[in-house]
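chain below, 98 aa
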Amino acid sequence: MGNFIKTDENPLDIVEIKIDGTSHISLRNPRLCSQQCENKPCTYFCPTRVFYWDGKTESISVIYARCVECGACPHGCPHGNIDWHFPAGGYGVVYRHG
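prediction:
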């Protein structure tokens, strides 16, 4: 038996995301996404769908408030076009003690 014990406790009860007014994620060159990135992998490798392709504007939109700080986005972009850093102190994912 592993270290995983099933309980009725919801893990989201101890997690909160405090949203900063300033994004900690940006695209270095937004036109690169529409002009040179064929598969747009950021729209499917992000576990919380921070990035999505907006067909109307023909651009990638960034919803930074969804970020859980996994750090995958700068490494998953084949063009190195995503600028990501941890949110300012006091913002981002905050774990509360049960």
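The first strand starts at residue 15 and ends at 18. The chain has a mean pLDDT of 86.
thats it, cya
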